[in-house]
Write a structure and sequence with these properties.
The complex is a heterodimer of chains A (about 230) and B (about 150). In chain A, about 40% of the residues lie in helices and about 20% in strands. Chain A has about 230 residues and is an alpha+beta fold.
Chain lengths: ~230, ~150
């Protein structure tokens, strides 16, 4: 541990801008050659040492976008697929992964849900402190009964949430989730244009991360582990 | 150097003209398994066009669904939009790829969920290549994405 602190301090010193990133004219560099060179060597040597002892001492950035401190996404009131009323308070102490979709969606939604299933698998025992929520944006077609068939198929721990159209609107507004009906001429009647991202909330129910659809299951698992540590 | 090349081209052209195989072929057709309660599914495939004329996929039909449509996904500003398209162009030499996040054959009103490992027939109707039957293999629900079990190419 002491060694790690020492290495960090050395790294900080070696990183000072006047050392490695000298932008002064050549003549001036000439006179400062000694310290610049020494620092560069120290830095290079340190890098080698640090590479040898993983994990890196400084926490890597999240794969997702850190949106901690956002003023929105504070509350939710819906019915789960077992018919139980739910708010964010029910999931205190757990990292909540919140996805918004609809069961008639053939591509984006199952892909996102399958990714969360893979994330939960990757997390192993840590998954007990994670709750994946599927919020339906199609309350007229996605009844609790439909969600009870659909959502647990991805993972038995996942919960589907739905509500009245007004409740769904309120949640979408609160979480800044865009969705709109698109009339379809064919057999579908209508489809939904919808925001394809997801959120991660921490154990206190605070909005922490925006998860882009491109993130892999491993990326999400890594970020969840970081949230669990804090 | 030039002559063998021209000869080779001729040979290829003649070969293509003589072959009984249609110029347009659907390969690697697969569908994602569906969750119970999900009434719709997507079929993905590659449409190869080795001929000289552009072709079009006009429609498709399958017994597993009450209705089959051609759809396109668009992702704009993080918002996913799905729209029905009248046809899918299959240009000569280039072909087309139906893949997750892009175009797909949409199965609407599945009688029962698509189960991983199973297969079902799909009929494709092309403007020039006519009617073709293709066997669709059902892959895992996370197939074709970063989520896991990538389908083979």
């Amino acid at each position: 541990m002491m060694q790690k602190v020492f290495l960090l301090e050395l790294l900080r010193r070696a990183r000072r801008p006047e050392g490695c990133y000298d932008s002064r004219p050549a003549t001036s560099v000439q006179t400062h050659r000694q310290p610049v060179l020494r620092r560069t060597i120290t830095f290079a040597a340190l890098l080698l040492v640090l590479c040898a002892c993983s994990p890196a001492p400084e926490a890597p950035p999240f794969h997702a976008t850190d949106i901690s401190g956002s003023s929105f996404g504070k509350r939710l009131a819906l019915t789960d697929h077992n018919g139980k009323r739910r708010t964010l308070a029910d999931f205190r102490g757990k990292i909540v992964l919140l996805f918004f979709g609809y069961t008639q969606c053939p591509d984006i939604c199952p892909t996102a849900m399958a990714r969360f299933a893979q994330t939960v698998k990757t997390l192993g025992a840590d998954a007990e402190r994670v709750q994946v929520l599927f919020v339906s944006l199609d309350p007229e077609r996605d009844t609790p009964e439909i969600l009870a068939k659909y959502v647990p198929f991805f993972h038995p721990s996942f919960l589907g949430l739905t509500g009245t159209p007004a409740e769904t609107d309120a949640v979408a507004r609160e979480f800044r989730v865009f969705y709109a009906r698109r009339q379809a001429d064919g057999a579908l009647g209508y489809t939904l244009d919808h925001w394809a991202g997801a959120y991660a909330l921490d154990g206190e129910g605070r909005l922490r991360l925006y998860l882009a659809p491109e993130l892999s299951a491993d990326d999400v698992a890594g970020d969840v582990r970081r949230l669990l540590k804090n | 150097m030039r002559r063998p090349f021209v000869t080779l081209l001729c040979a290829l052209a003649c070969g293509a003209a003589l072959a009984a195989e249609p110029a347009v072929r659907a390969v690697q057709a697969w569908a994602r398994a569906t969750a119970p309660g999900a009434p719709n599914g997507g079929v993905f495939m590659k449409l190869e066009n080795s001929g000289r004329a552009d072709d079009k996929l006009l429609r498709a039909s399958a017994d597993v669904a009450t209705s089959v449509e051609l759809h396109m996904h668009r992702m704009q500003g993080g918002v996913a939009t799905m729209i029905e398209v009248p046809a899918i162009d299959v240009p000569a030499g280039k072909g087309a790829e139906l893949k997750p996040g892009g175009m797909h054959v949409m199965l609407i009103g599945l009688g029962k969920p698509l189960k991983e490992g199973a297969k079902f027939p799909l009929t494709l109707h092309f403007e020039k290549a006519g009617v073709q039957k293709v066997e669709v293999s059902i892959q895992g629900i996370g197939a074709g994405s970063a989520a896991g079990d990538h389908h083979g190419h």
